[in-house]
Amino acid sequence: MGLTITGLGTAIPEQRLTNADLERMVDTSDAWIVERTGIRERRVAAPDETSATLGTDAAAAALKDAGLTPDDIGLLVVATTTPVQLFPSTAVRIQDSLGLRCGAFDVMAACSGFVYGLVTAAGMMTVDAGLKAASGGQPGGRPFLVVGTETLTRVVDPTDRSTCILFGDGAGAAVVDHSVEADGGLLSWDLGSDGSLVSLLEVPPGERWLRMEGKEVFRRAVRVVVESSSTALQKAGMTPEDVDLFVPHQANVRIIDAVCSRIGIPLDRTVVNLDRYGNTSAASIPLALAEAAEAGRLTGGEVVLISGFGAGMTWASAVLRWEPRQ
Ligand code: ACO
Questions:
Q1: Which end of the chain is more exposed for a tag (fewer CB within 10 A), N or C?
Q2: Does any ligand 1 atom lie closer than 6 A to the CB of residue 283?
């Protein structure tokens, strides 16, 4: 019994921060930002918006997309790098505001968080199915919600031109259920981390703003995404030619270009939406998936490779075969 995505939803703050706005804030230019990153604008959460409110809105949209109600959901997993507070989790706030009646917890793996959350959900679904089968019951169970939600602009120094141009706010959510096709849903995954690289990208303890060694993150990101994607494809018994849609973490278009050319996946089979949202960390992959589905690029049968990297460093890839709507 695999895991398949049956609904997707997003929540995007109204306020746009364009490159022209940034030109007025720091010593930068639209041309520099577009050439070095591909980003043209990002969204900024309103004062009353948090990772919990954005996550709630994205999750509600995903529930609607799946044709479900809060009572149908058996577990909530929330990936966020920018929780509302140290504790309790952002997940319990989303659980309460949506009126879910299930367990809820956060996953912290920075920009790899959504894929970590998806794989965690898949593991718990498999356990659920196994326990039911062992006790003689019917396999199956309630669907889960996996949410990626961020308010990264709140931890970015607005006077630091090397970071304030990169990040944006937003949320994406997926309803996941037991797959119905023998070769459908989540086919393989690869998760990795290297904690010796904490200082490459972090909010240092006791400090307010994130610090990043951009060049080194860039170099290592290309390497880990290529390696992790290849591992996930191998585990699924597939090659890059089999991939119909590649959904990479949206950090920098030059990272995506380099990864695509090294793996051998053409850009026309790759989702790029960072020009409009910047880097939304754990929200970026579900946001991109939702846009791809909306654009008719995910109708059923497609082999989808998702791959993220982020602070830690962490990295995470998964291969799914998209299942048509029932
Ligand atoms: N505008 C104009 N000039 C700038 C800007 C700016 N916004 N930012 C930096 N510069 C300058 C630098 O000061 C430097 O000037 P110098 O040569 O006089 O010293 C020059 O531009 C080149 O700077 P680099 O840092 O070498 O530029 P680079 O080409 O590496 O691009 C960037 C910087 C865009 C940050 C790139 O390194 C990058 O994208 N790295 C990856 C970052 C990333 O993906 N982070 C997210 C990880 S995911 C997560 O966990 C959140």
A1: C
A2: no
Q: Is the dihedral of CA 43, 48, 54, 59 positive or negative?
A: negative
Average pLDDT in the chain: 96
Q: Structure pTM?
A: 0.96
The yes-or-no answer to whether 3-178 and 185-321 have a common fold is yes
CATH topology of domain 3-178: Peroxisomal Thiolase; Chain A, domain 1 (3.40.47)
Pocket test for ligand 1, best of 23, 116, 218 (most atoms within 8 A of CB): 218
Tell me the per-residue pLDDT of 207-216, one tens digit each, with 9 for 90 and over: 999 999 999 9
Percentage above 70 pLDDT, the chain: 99
What pLDDT score was predicted for residue 182?
Answer: 79
Strands of 245-248's sheet, edge to edge?
Answer: 185-193, 314-321, 303-310, 245-248
Q: What is the pLDDT of residue 139?
A: 65
Of residues 190, 176, 179, the one with CA closest to residue 234: 190
Of 284, 306, 273, 290, nearest in space to 110 by CA: 284
Q: What is the pLDDT of residues 273-291, one digit of tens each?
A: 999 999 999 999 999 999 9
CA 187 vs CA 49, 214, 316, 322: distances in Å: 36, 33, 14, 10
Phi, then psi, of 104 in degrees rounded to 5:
-150, 135
Spans of all domains in the chain: 3-178, 185-321
Atom of ligand 1 nearest to the CA of 252: 39
Query: What residue spans of the chain are helical by DSSP H?
Result: 19-25, 30-37, 51-66, 90-98, 113-134, 214-235, 253-263, 274-277, 284-294
Of 215, 279, 284, which is best to mutate to test ligand 1, by the most ligand atoms within 8 angstroms of its C-beta? Answer: 215
